[in-house]
Structure formats: C-alpha cells, structure tokens
Amino acid sequence: MNKILFSTLSLVAAVSLNATVFATVNGMDITEREIAPIVAGLGPNVDISKLPDNIKKEILERSIMQQLLLKEAKDSGVAKGERFNRELELAKEMLTIRLWQEEKAKNIKVAENDIKAFYDKNKAKFMQPAQIKAGHILVKTEAEAKTIINDLKNFKGDDLVKNFAITAAQKSLEPAARQTGGALGWFSEHQMVKPFYDAAKALKKGEISLKPVKTQFGYHVILKEDAKDAHQATFSEAKPTIENILKQEKLKETITKEAKDLRAKAKVEYK
To answer: What is the pTM of this model?
Structure first.
C-alpha cells in the first residue's frame, strides 16, 4: 500500500515554495524541485501563496502521482537500456545548443534607430485591432453560473472587481483563472470563441454578464473591465515586438556565420 505523509502546514497554509518537504511518499520527499514545474505550468510568475488551498492540494497531488509513476518507470528498467542512453545523449546535445544560443542572445543589442526605422517602414503591420479587457469565471453548469451571477450582481466598482476575483479563485474550472482571479487581460475578436467575445463586447465597462454565456468549454460569467478601439500602434507599443524581431534576426545571422566559419575550418573526411 502506498504510504503518503502530508505536512499539514506546507499543504494547507504554505506561503511559498521554500518549505523543505511538502509530503513524503513511500519514503520519497516531495520538495520544491518536484512541485516547481507544475506551478510554472499554471502561468508566468505564479505565486503559490495566493492560490486557494484546494489548488495547493491539487498541485501536491499531481506531484505525488508523477513521482509514483516515475518510480514505477524507473523500476521497470527502461532507464537502463541502450535506447534510453541514446535519447538522453540527444536531449543533452539539444539542451547544450539551446543554452549556448541563449547565452549568445544576451549579447545581442539592437540600436534604437534601427527599431524606429523598422517601425516607420512597417507601420501597416502594427495596426492594433479593437480589444477588450475582461475576466471570467468558468463553471460546468448553467445553474452554477446563475448562482454566481446572483451573488455578484449587486456589487459595483471596486467591490465587484474584488468579489469577482475571489469567486473566480474559488470556483472557476480554469486553473489559471483561479490564480489570476479570472483576469484574461486584453484580447481581440479572433483570440476568443465568438459567443464569448460577442457577450463581452455587448457589456458596458464595469458590468458582469447577467446571463450565463455558453461555449464549448462550459458556462462563463464575464466581467468587462475596459475596451479600446482599433488603432495604429504607437512606436512605444510596437517597440518591444520590433526589438525582439530584430534580435532574433541578428541571432540567426550570428549563428549562421559562426556555423559557416566552423565548417570552413573543420577537417571533414567523407566515408
């Protein structure tokens, strides 16, 4: 029988991933090393201390299951065969190249005037579509959505935003929404399914949908935070994107040149 010992403090009341051990499974410790990849998968800069207790427990359960499966896989002997060693060596080679390229990328600089020149030449590519800023709570049934709407409909302004976020963290089916309080940020028409976008568009700023919005994912309660019309992106808005484009181009040129130089110097014997 699997023996799992939970640390109540780290499971329910943990405020960070600095705790040494979160659980012990058949003598194996579940620590930050095992949990970190799962937390990272919820989105960038996720703070586990802000997650509801049920989500913390879910993360720990997933890590426990992964460790049990990993132990089973290791015990099967697959990690000792020739195929495993070949795959491992290939993975190491690919990782080595990727890390080397990342180090190269750190040294690549793009001049401000080059970014501006690219912007001036390609302004048509930087038209921003109409966008909506909203949050949502996703549930399985229409009845659940109606209950949430009834609980929230009398709140206004900051009180609505606060209670919406709390409700999303507690009840939304979407893991990321639980951590972010349901916030979706800015999105355009083609980034959302039509029923969702149309419902969000019809709302006024600071309103929630008074009817559940049905999509293939379930039933949504939507809070519209803001909206902006289609417009030409300013230089400051476009600058980060352009800088990244030019950096990638320079990196590609640098790597290609280095590869050609190495090839020219290499002693190659065809067999």
So the answer is: 0.56
